[in-house]
Amino acid sequence: MPTPAISVAMSVYNGDRFLASAIESVLAQDFVDFEFLILDDGSSDGSAAIIRDYARRDPRIRARLRENRGLVASLNELIEMARAPIVARMDADDICRPDRFGKQFAFLQTHPDYGVVGSWSEDIGEAGEQLVRSGADHPETHEQLLAAIEAGGQLICHPAVMYRRDVVRSVGSYHAAFRHCEDLDLWLRLSSITRLGNIPERLLRYRRYPGQVSSRHATEQQIGTAVAQVAWRERAAGRPDPTAQLDRLPPIADLDALFGRPGIARQVREQVAMGLLYSASAMRDEGFDLLVRHLREGGRRDGMWRTVVRLLRFGEPRRALRLAATLTTCG
């Protein structure tokens, strides 16, 4: 078979609810020279049956069904499966615009110094309805992206990205330690060896709903984000990155020992605590305990009394009282 121009990489885990729409949006692309790799990561719902059905109908689809190993392992497996020099990521709950692949492929062809290109996105809800966006769009140029790294801003929407396979493989692809923020860690590592940017067009419809990973694992995601940023600063300073060979990040309390310097644990805990104040799921899990410890260590108190009110709105009166008591005794 001739080598395709693009390998589309989709990992699926219990995604039957939106999977057909996601697959259809890939198959409807104006740019048709691609193979479509769909890996079912041990789903227990109807995802495998949907994938088999589409694979029978379209020869561009290469399906792999196996036991559950997690998203990072699945993404790295898809990169190794890819026959094309360029890989387009896609999630099982989002929708591509028909011209997405064509525009991103053309960008990489005319910008050989860029190894990664994403795009802006449009937020949609569970039924596909358009949601009101808040916050800034992703940076366009590499220089703007570097500034966003310094500011702790958004970089690239993972399911909207297209990248050069060899460039990603050259930095070890996705790292296992950064589960639920594996993309951010990858962009930070790639930023020192290639240019990254975004096409300022909404080429992906990004679905937001309560059951998605970013909602269910908010605390772990925020911790991973903070540690990835610490690791990026270590590399930028010419120091070794101790996270590179880890399968899992250690507890926050062990970060000073991991990085060999005092103050890292407190820095990460403060960043995570301040980033979780508006997350209902985080305030219902270990994120709340992390917040309390942050305050007991004398950490920033910005917006904490408003968080007490927010906890009441979240239906967590006991935690609201506990936070109020902590603020009073640590004042």
Distance N to C terminus: 69 Å
- Overall tally of structural domains: 2
Going by CATH, the architecture of the largest domain would be Alpha-Beta Complex
Helix content: 40-55%
Uncertain segments of ≥5 residues (pLDDT<50)?
Answer: none
- Class from secondary-structure proportions: alpha/beta
Question: What kind of assembly state do the chains in view correspond to?
Answer: single chain
Radius of gyration: 21 Å
Largest sheet, in brief, is: 8 strands, mixed
CATH class of the largest domain: Alpha Beta
The average pLDDT score comes to 95
> Going by CATH, what is the homologous superfamily of the largest domain?
Spore Coat Polysaccharide Biosynthesis Protein SpsA, Chain A
Q: In total, how many beta strands? A: 8
The order of strands across the largest sheet is: 3-2-1-4-7-6-8-5
Strand content: 15-25%
- Classify the fold: give the CATH topology of the largest domain: Spore Coat Polysaccharide Biosynthesis Protein SpsA, Chain A
In N-to-C order, the SSE pattern is: EHEHEHEEHEHEHHEHHHHHHHH
Output the number of helix runs: 15
Shape: globular
Question: Can you tag this structure with a few keywords?
Answer:
single chain, 331 residues, alpha/beta, Spore Coat Polysaccharide Biosynthesis Protein SpsA, Chain A, eight-stranded mixed sheet, 15 helices, 8 strands, 44% helix, globular
What does this structure look like?
There is one protein chain. By secondary structure, the protein is α/β, with parallel strands linked by helices. It folds into 2 domains: 6-213, Spore Coat Polysaccharide Biosynthesis Protein SpsA, Chain A, CATH 3.90.550; 217-329, no CATH class. Helices cover 44% and strands 16% of the residues. It has 15 helices and 8 strands. The protein has helices at 19-27, 47-57, 71-81, 100-110, 142-151, 165-170, 182-190, 213-216, 218-236, 255-259, 264-275, 280-284, 286-296, 304-313, 317-329; strands spanning 6-12, 34-41, 61-66, 86-89, 95-96, 114-124, 162-164, 195-207. Strand 1, helix 1 (19-27) and strand 2 form a beta-alpha-beta unit. Helix 9 crosses helix 11. The relative contact order is 0.10.
